[in-house]
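Postdoc handover notes: sequence design on the structure in folder B. Input tokens:
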């Protein structure tokens, strides 16, 4: 049984953040991840002139059987 999903966001500078918000379905998690990609790209463009292309996110499923990556924004 699936307990919940989380977004793991990978920033262009290499650091990784697991977002605290819990999502009950992948669609909501993907929406959140996509909005983060836009924000990071805009911030990178503003501060460094970069585009934030190296940013990506993973959707991680947490269930009774453990943790499993179910989506990767680089493959969508």
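Designed sequence:
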């Amino acid at each position: 049984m699936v307990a919940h999903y989380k977004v793991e966001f990978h920033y262009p500078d290499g650091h990784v953040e697991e977002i605290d918000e819990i999502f009950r379905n992948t669609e909501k998690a993907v929406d959140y991840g996509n909005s983060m990609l836009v924000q990071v790209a805009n911030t990178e463009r503003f501060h460094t002139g970069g585009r934030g292309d190296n940013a990506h996110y993973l959707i991680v499923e947490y269930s009774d059987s453990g943790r499993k990556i179910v989506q990767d924004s680089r493959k969508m």
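Context for whoever picks this up: The first helix runs from residue 26 to 48. Don't rerun without checking with the PI first.
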